Amino acid sequence: MSDVSKIILRNLGIEIPAERADAIARTLETMLEAERAATGRLQFEQEPSGFLSEIEKEIP
Amino acid sequence: MTAIPELTAADLARRIRRREVSAAEAMTQTLVAMKRAHERLNCAVRIDEEQALAAARAVDAALARGQVLGPLAGVPMAHKDMFYREGVASSCGSKIARDRKAATTATVLKRLDAAGAIQFGVLHMVEFAYGPTGHNWHLGHCRNAWSPEHITGGSSSGSGTSIAARANFAALGSDTGGSIRLPAHFCGVTGLKPTYGRVPRAGAMPLSFSLDTVGPLARTAEDCALVLQAIAGADAADPTASRRPVPDYRAALARPVNGLRIGVPRAFFYDRIDASIEKPVRASQEVFRSLGCEIVEVPMPDLERWNQAAIAIITAEAAALHAAWLRERPQDYSEQVRARLELGAAVGAVQYVNALRLRGEALRIWNGEVMSKIDAVHAPCVAFPTPTIAETDVGGGPKMAQVIAQATRLMRPANFLGLPSLALPCGFQPNGLPVAFQLIGRPFGEGQLLRLGHAYQMNTGFHREGPHGKT
Question: What is the per-residue pLDDT across B394-429, written as a single tens digit (0 to 9) for each?
Fold first, then answer.
């Protein structure tokens, strides 16, 4: 688990048992790598049509 | 004459309304069936016998006076134990919440009460609805009505298995990452995950507010339509509930399906699928073809990555909701739920926000590239044979992530995109355990999914098969 993650968790007051920390770190890494790849091309812009307005749109 | 527990909710409601069957008799037989099922399957958390019988007798008396009652009058229902009723504790499958009495009643329960349904108990669920298999280390694991050694799927475990056991007519479940559709698949019942916002969530236990949906599990698509009709629609108590008008779902069932276009995914959903699942799922496509639907192959966007964004959202939001209990009562969670909540606490804010930002973009891509050419996507619910409870009893250990990812992989796209998805039984694995497929629709396209599902069930008999034979 990275030092940053440890700081975040310490700030939240959540203690992760040592025997689980490595497994959680590995899962987190896999998840966030894929998530970063998926969101990497998001543009720097206002989002007037975010998810909630998108779901209400009729499909042509 | 068909025994009462073997009727569908729609049939029973009709017979009670015509006074061919009394609501009291229906309730008495259901209570007997539920007690028997619970002994074998560990599917109930609480059965409210006296209250339910009194309510059933009141329905009979009202009908005798000539009073016109709601469309579900007298139909016995028990729900996942996470829908609050004022003054009553909902365990949410947990040790932590089991004594917390609710201050208000969930909108969905108020609406089912108004439709005349009689709640006779609350059902087993995965702790805080956070698990796809039906394991619960506080309540004991829930067992599959078709084979008690096998999983029910979760998190609406008791809802799925009690309906399969013919001990319940319809049940509410919640679906944040497959929790309605997985028990529907594993237990051989019909389950509808509605569009995000279609059904109000006020008074339902939260897990992930961006993804949570509430919907029915029942024996048929028609029963799901009846329940959805009662619970859908705008709600002053839930600003996230859509104000879009609620269509007449039952009327839509009668419309023909010929000419509808059903998309079969070219990628993702059939990757590494076991033949025992693929065969009945593919066969169900042919039923739609025979009904005049056009079956077309459709490309799939990068769903693996979208799934990971969905996981970032659910884990972060669940951790936020549970942060105080994680600090103060970590020992009162099971190892698995605690480990998953800890994972979410470590997700960074930038990643969480970007995963949310991606949803709008992803839905634009999905609607443009996939749904603009078709009316529904047809896909399997899971890709592997039903495992036993023992095989998947991995707690919070190193195999946990793999078991959860495998079980939820084909479920998450509909949750991430907020889309409706209907799971329908379509056959059996060689060991006799059921298989279902899912139809994923357009936003607020529940009517079309139910129409397709009803047409499928009018032309097949899988939904009538029960663990004890055909009904």
Answer: 988 888 889 999 999 999 999 999 999 999 999 999
Contacts of A13 in chain B (CB under 8 A): 323, 327
Q: What angle do CA B122, B15, B192 make, to 5 degrees?
A: 45
Residue-wise burial string across B85-105, b where 16 or more C-beta atoms lie within 10 A, e elsewhere: beeebbbbbbbbbbeeebeeb
Q: Per residue in B7-52, pLDDT tens?
A: 999 999 999 999 999 999 999 999 999 999 999 999 999 999 999 9
Q: Which residues contact A1 (CB under 8 A, 6 or more apart)?
A: A16, A21, A22, A24, A25, A28, B346
Chain A interface disruption, residue of B347, B366, B409, B444, most A CBs within 10 A: B347
Quote ipTM for the complex.
Answer: 0.88
Question: Which own/partner contact pairs does B432-435 have at CB distance under 8 Å and 24+ positions apart?
Answer: B432/B146, B432/B147, B433/B144, B433/B146, B433/B147, B433/B150, B433/B186, B433/B188, B433/B385, B433/B386, B434/B146, B434/B164, B434/B185, B434/B186, B434/B187, B434/B188, B434/B462, B434/B465, B435/B185, B435/B276, B435/B277, B435/B280, B435/B281
Q: At what angle do helices B335-345 and A3-12 cross, to 10 degrees?
A: 110
- Helix (H) or strand (E) segment spanning residue B326: helix B303-328
Instruction: Please indicate whether residue B242 is annotated as part of the active site.
Output: no
Closest CA relative to residue B196, chosen from A53, A18, A17:
A53
Q: Which residues pair with B296 in a beta bridge?
A: B263
Distance (Å) from the alpha carbon of A5 to chain B's nearest alpha carbon: 6
Report the distance separating Cα B104 and Cα B415, nearest Å.
27
Contacts of B65 (CB under 8 A, 6+ apart): none
DSSP 8-class letter at B397? S
Residue B360's pLDDT is 93
Nearest to B75 by CA among B36, B2, B145, B25: B25
For residue B399, indicate whether it is catalytic. Answer: no
Taking the model in full, what pTM does it have? 0.97
Q: Which residues of B342-369 are buried (b: 16+ CB within 10 A; e: fewer)?
A: bbbbbbeeebbebbbbbbbbbbeebbee
| Beta sheet of B118-123, edge-to-edge order | B44-47, B118-123, B76-80
Do B340 and B130 form a contact (C-beta atoms < 8 A)?
Answer: yes
Q: Decide the pairing of beta strands B190-193 and B170-174.
A: unpaired
The answer to whether B44 and B34 are in contact (CB under 8 A) is: yes
Mean pLDDT across chain B, nearest whole number? Answer: 96
What is residue B413's predicted lDDT score, i.e. its pLDDT?
A: 98
Question: What is chain B's alpha carbon radius of gyration, rounded to the nearest angstrom?
Answer: 21
Of B244, B361, B401, the CB nearest to A56: B244
Maximum CA pair distance of chain B? 62
